[in-house]
Write a sequence for this structure.
């Protein structure tokens, strides 16, 4: 009986690709671990001595043996990762292209995770190939190859398309679908930028969702309707659940910008092309991971064959941590290796500090050593120590590139950093180093960064007051619309908006102040006017886009005061579409 208690399967039968043959695994266990370590050592040797092609050829042969063994025991994710390592090694042999930091880092992590995954599968008696996707993609990116989607191992049975029924919303008079698509695309891009930078993730997702919902109204009955429906629900699932923002997910949402561009360029005809099934499956996979037990999420899970996925996002994150997290078995097994690397690096530093020249003889080998230490520390979850090594790596690379001579004091600073990392590794070996202790160390570093990046208290107060003012304005506008446009609900709105504009002036944000000024002109000229326009509902929707954009900009300012004012472009375009262009100096 498989032990799968650590993974929340929801009572579902385990998918075929998650089952492993423990008997076969135990047979090859010892030899496979040795071969993986041997292949990594052979690659390191070749990196140090590029003339020794025999070392690279030996590494290739070791990787062929590893991939064959993993394929035989059907450890699918590990087999594919080994395949990527093998293809990369072959390309190095064929192209004679220098190994850059990015590729070297991806290979180091790949070998390390391959060993970890093998140990993980033995301990859990469970294979979870989805855990290998980030490491496979790291290698593919370093080779300038397309990434694989997260649903690659998920065995989706079928794709699903909404019945083509109903008609799309009419394009408002005086506007075009191309112009609206351009505004909505900018809205999506602003939210996407926040998502990529992981600044105010929830508001960023909501901005992207609002943009997709706006476009979706005009896709009814078209071949791409299913795509827009899935995009809305995928973004909704991300908002409702704590779904991690991974590199693969950022890349997918970046890729989807092309669909907005298509409508912007082709108009209504842009809806007539169905979107690639693999994209639909990937979005459905995210929805399945969210594991929300309500419609339409349940319907999507069933329709795409993900009912038997066997895990959700919470379980995936837990298992990813178990794979490379700072458990006693994982970290302790590499602590001694890392300490040996550190000792060698310190000897180089000490020798250079004591010499007359203070120049490190072989920068290449020294950089490789620091890179390896940094990557392994990062993979096992020792983020603070990894960051320390990253700083030293940048310093040494600067010396290497400039050919400057480091003085003894600078060299000893590097040595002190090595001593700190060594002390962290000592604490792991000498006592039970818990996840809580690791979180405490890493959290201290993160908190310090947050403190250093916060706005001054006075600025924060002004921003919060401005946000409160915008919230009040939006509430008044909703009441205005619900009451069939009774102006009594918005009689004090301009006063509130003037207060917001004053805050923008105080904070020296001329572009934001200009957006508020144009908003006041719209309210006075179109909403409070005795001759209200006929298309008031559409105008209020467009004005809401401007306010939401302004609100998003202020929200991001609270954590990143250097956020580009170009974020306000949606507000400016929306106000221009209403006939109230924004002008400012600065």
């Amino acid at each position: 009986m498989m032990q799968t208690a650590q993974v929340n399967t929801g009572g579902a039968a385990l998918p075929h690709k998650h089952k492993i043959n423990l008997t076969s695994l135990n047979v090859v266990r010892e030899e496979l671990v040795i071969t993986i370590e041997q292949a990594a050592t052979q690659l390191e040797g070749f990196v140090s001595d590029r003339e020794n092609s025999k070392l690279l050829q030996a590494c290739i042969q070791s990787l062929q043996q590893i991939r064959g063994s993993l394929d035989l025991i059907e450890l699918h994710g590990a087999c594919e990762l080994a395949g990527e390592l093998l293809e990369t090694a072959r390309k190095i042999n064929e192209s004679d292209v220098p190994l850059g930091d990015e590729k070297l880092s991806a290979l180091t992590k790949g070998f390390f995770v391959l060993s970890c995954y093998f140990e993980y599968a033995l301990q859990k008696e469970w294979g979870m190939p989805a855990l290998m996707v980030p490491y496979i993609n790291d290698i593919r990116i370093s080779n300038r190859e397309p990434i694989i989607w997260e649903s690659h191992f998920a065995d989706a049975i079928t794709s699903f398309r909404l019945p083509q029924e109903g008609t799309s919303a009419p394009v408002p008079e005086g506007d075009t679908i191309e112009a609206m698509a351009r505004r909505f695309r900018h809205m999506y891009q602003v939210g996407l930028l926040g998502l990529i930078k992981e600044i105010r993730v929830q508001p960023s997702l909501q901005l992207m969702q609002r943009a997709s919902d706006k476009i979706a109204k005009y896709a009814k009955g078209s071949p791409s309707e299913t795509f827009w429906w899935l995009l809305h629900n995928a973004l909704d699932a991300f908002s409702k659940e704590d779904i991690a923002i991974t590199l693969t997910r950022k890349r997918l949402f970046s890729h989807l910008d092309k669909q907005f561009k298509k409508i912007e360029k082709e108009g209504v005809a842009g809806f007539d092309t169905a979107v690639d099934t693999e994209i639909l499956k990937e979005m459905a996979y995210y929805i399945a991971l969210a594991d929300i037990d309500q419609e339409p999420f349940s319907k999507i899970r069933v329709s795409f064959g993900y009912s038997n996925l066997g895990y959700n996002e919470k379980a995936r994150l837990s298992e990813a941590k178990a794979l490379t997290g700072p458990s006693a078995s994982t970290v302790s097994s590499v602590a001694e290796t890392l300490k040996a690397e550190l000792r060698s690096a310190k000897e180089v530093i000490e020798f250079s500090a004591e010499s007359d020249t203070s120049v490190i003889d072989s920068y290449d080998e020294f950089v490789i050593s620091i890179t390896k230490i940094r990557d392994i520390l990062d993979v096992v979850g020792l983020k603070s120590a990894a960051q320390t090594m990253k700083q030293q790596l940048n310093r040494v690379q600067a010396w290497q590139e400039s050919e400057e001579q480091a003085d003894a004091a600078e060299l000893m600073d590097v040595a002190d950093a090595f001593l700190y990392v060594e002390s962290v590794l000592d604490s792991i070996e000498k006592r039970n180093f818990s996840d809580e202790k690791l979180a405490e160390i890493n959290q201290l570093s993160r908190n310090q960064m947050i403190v250093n990046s916060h706005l001054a208290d006075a600025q924060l107060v002004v921003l919060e007051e401005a946000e409160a003012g915008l919230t009040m304005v939006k509430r008044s506008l909703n009441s205005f619309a619900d009451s069939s446009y009774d102006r009594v609900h918005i009689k004090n709105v301009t006063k509130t908006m003037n207060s917001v504009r004053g805050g923008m002036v105080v904070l020296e944000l001329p572009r934001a102040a200009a957006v508020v000024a144009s908003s006041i002109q719209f309210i006075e000229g179109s909403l409070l006017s005795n001759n209200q326009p006929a298309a008031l509902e559409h105008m209020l929707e467009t004005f809401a886009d401007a306010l939401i954009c302004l609100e998003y900009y202020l929200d991001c300012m609270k954590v990143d005061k250097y956020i580009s004012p170009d974020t306000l472009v949606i507000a400016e375009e929306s106000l221009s579409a209403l006939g109230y262009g924004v002008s400012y100096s600065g």
Remarks:
- Residues 1-17, 430-438, 444-455 have pLDDT under 50 and may be disordered.
- Residues 238 and 345 are 44 Å apart (CA to CA).
